[in-house]
Amino acid sequence: MPDKIDISKQSVKGFKAAAVAAGLKKGGAPDMALIVSEKEASAAGVFTTNKVKAAPVLLTRKHMKGGRARAIIANAGCANACTGDPGLADAHRTADLVGEALGIQPQRVLVASTGVIGQRLNMGKVEAAILNLKEALTPKGIPLAAEAIMTTDSFSKISSFDGPAENRSYRIAGIAKGAGMIMPNMATMLCFILSDIQIAPDALQEMLSAAAEKTFNRISVDGDTSTNDMVLMMANGMAGNTALGREDQKLFEEGLTGVMENLARMIVKDGEGATKLVDVIINNAASADDALKAARTVANSSLVKTAFYGQDPNWGRIMAALGRADIEMHESQIDIRIDDVQIVSGGLACGMDAEKRAAQIMTRDEFVLSVDLHQGNFRDHVVTSDLTHEYIDINADYRT
Questions:
Q1: pLDDT of 225
Q2: Architecture per CATH, 7-269
Q3: Residue 219: pLDDT band by 50, 70, 90 thresholds?
Q4: Which of 83, 151, 188, 297 is the catalytic position?
Q5: What gap in Å lies between CA 359 and CA 361, rounded to an integer?
Q6: How is domain 277-396 classified at the CATH fold level?
Q7: How far apart (Å, rounded) are the C-alpha atoms in residues 99 and 109?
Q8: For this structure, is 388 an active site residue?
Q9: Which of 343, 336, 381, 382 is nearest to 359 (CA)?
């Protein structure tokens, strides 16, 4: 679990948020969140590449086309996925209800859901909750929203960055949820990012997409991509800057990527049943595509992940994963390290002493597995977790 959150750093000028318990999630915990900008904001989004897309993904992609938004409404406990036309009507009705309550156009409302697939939303509970959410809106509500979107998460995930633009201070604050169904080819399960910086929608979209590629597209808990994955960002311009110069833009990009990197690593650290966070790094691949394929194949291997859990430097499993990754490689040129301990040189074992030292490193909560392919100059990485008994227990009982 991360250090205690400094709530004073989570408010963003011009934004309010709220959370309530609508009764959609088992146990009576908060399960609906509303985030509202005082003024129309530039908006950007990145969405799941899964061909099975939940109703809120379809609707929000449509609402995002204008690059403007005023509110995000999110629920946990029900994914509203695989619900056909009635589910899409429920997503539309949700946006309509928020628009009605706030006095804004429904097209400026972005809708997100997470939870069990194949079930309809209880719209009676949603309607009542939206009115309660409106009354509960507060500038200090972002941490509450972070808690309300959790499902199997064990802790809420928040990160922020403060920076200047034209000598005016701005803030980026992000919240995310995710612990399972994590290997997004775009984002994570749900992530909402807010900023008071002034930036055009096209520029915001470009930066968000680039940052997602470097962060959320480089994590895996279980190799599954959800039907509901989305990253949404709103920037309302209330920091007062008028434009982003080259240096200001560079700092903003770095800050945004840093916030998303922090959230991505929290998601892996909170992976269902996970006890380890492992950076899988591929060095000197023949191409960028090879580097990423190799990293993903190793990071998603169930045998490799169970070896992480067992604190066993079973490098044969890593070699086998590399061999089926469909990359340019030669067994006799492979080097493998756990942190700074080399366990394989030229495709051969470095001996039991090296493996014992590597096994000791693997008792830690975090470590690095690095592979040198000696095929070129390309590098990539994936952040992954181990695979434990608890992962099976959580997912076997998810609906019951």
A1: 58
A2: 4-Layer Sandwich (3.60)
A3: confident
A4: 188
A5: 5
A6: Ubiquitin-like (UB roll) (3.10.20)
A7: 7
A8: no
A9: 343
